[in-house]
Amino acid sequence: MVRPSGRGEGDDAERQGIGRTGTGRSAAVDAEIVIVGAGAAGLSLAHHLCAPPPGARAPSVALVEPPPGPRSPAVRTWCHWGPPDGPYDAVLTASWDRLRVRDRAGRASVGVPRGLRYKMLRSDVFERFVLDGLGGRAGFVRETATVTGVAGGPGGAVVEGRDAHGRPYRRTARWVFDSRPPDALPPARTTLLQHFRGWFVRTAEPRFDTGCADLMDFRTPQPAHGLSFGYVLPLGPCRALVEYTEFSRAPLDDAGYEAALRGYTGEVLRLGAFEVTGTEQGVIPMTDARFPRTGAPGVFRVGTAGGATRPSTGYTFAAVQRQARHVADRYRRGLPPVPPAPHSRRSRAMDAVLLRALDRRRVDGAAFFARLFATLPPERVLTFLDGGTGLREDLAIGCHVPWWPMTRTALELPFLRRRPAGAPPHRGEK
């Protein structure tokens, strides 16, 4: 489990004018909690808060999402790993008990992560699951508005915007959880982007092993900074999600993604004739920036906006679940529902070292990840990537990484200034 930072978060919240549950509630507030955004973070928080164990009280919650249009996110695929009896297993699109990683020469490391499965969940299915479960629950409302501002204060927080008809929208609450992506990334020493385009394909002949997911296939051209890989999630013998992914400084243009996917599906996978039945695309920040979890008194950031995305991998869904469970648990215990730090300080420090080593080309990223999966049990690697390993396990894993480049990078990081996103490199860097 990821632990909160050592500083007393509850004390911080109370110093901001947030009392314990059931005390000091302003008469002006019209909901205990407002959740801004209905993506993975907002839906998960609503689910955990409004579906309490028997006998536990649920807060009054307003879930605010934008009206259909350019601000509405497209249907997305969320993947994570966990035990085979997870809470969302009934609505998974698919899951796999075997994982495969291929190095640049095509050598495969195939493993069965003991006690874990790799799981694929579609965002529209998850949304229906959560909202159907909350339908008719007392105290829960779902509202449509484009939020333009969130302000906090000792007497409560205010959410303002425009509804679907352009009329002013206003909600007051004791606490607001804002999951909207930030307008700009916080200053960082290193920022890479995980960017990808995927095709849902249907082949003319069976081409896929339905029991095995290709987590990383490094038989792709590697960029100057970072790494690239193919990613294959089989949905049937003739169906799969096939993605081209890069960790690099900037996304590709449309022609670049199309060429990469054509090369991977044709020259590497040799799929033969196939049709593309759907596409998905995204950009995920991979940065050692510090994401503040408190925007103002009574206002908290969750999800990617609150630092839930793991800097070294781009995975977010599992950390979002930890945040949501923690917030709901604190509320039920009468404590300020302050979100936890999604990843431990040690995990963030290791991620910062890896990101800079990749960006400075001191470490061959393809060889780095391929070696981890080739030399260690897959469940240990996955637990490590999720921040669930202890110090002794981390030190043991460190024996399998390039020692000198990583040590050199770790020693220089404390002396590097954090720069705004898009700022020129440090002196002497390219």
Q: What do you see in this structure?
A:
Residues 1-17 have a biased composition (Basic and acidic residues). It is built from ten helices and 17 strands. The chain is globular and about 60 Å long. The longest helix is centred in the last third of the chain and has 16 residues, at 317-332. Strands 6-5-12-13-14-11-15 form a seven-stranded mixed beta sheet, sandwiched between helices. The protein has a five-stranded mixed barrel with strand order 1-2-8-9-10. The protein is α/β, with parallel strands linked by helices. Helix 2 runs parallel beside helix 5 (317-332) and helix 6 crosses helix 10. The chain has three domains: 9-74 and 123-184 and 290-332, FAD/NAD(P)-binding domain; 191-287, Alpha-Beta Plaits (2-Layer Sandwich), CATH 3.30.70; 345-415. 26% of the residues lie in helices and 29% in strands. The protein has helices at 9-15, 40-50, 123-134, 254-268, 317-332, 345-359, 365-375, 378-385, 391-398, 403-412, and strands spanning 31-36, 61-65, 77-82, 94-96, 98-102, 108-111, 117-122, 140-151, 157-163, 168-178, 191-203, 212-217, 227-236, 239-248, 274-287, 294-296, 299-301. Residues 1-28 have low confidence and may be disordered.
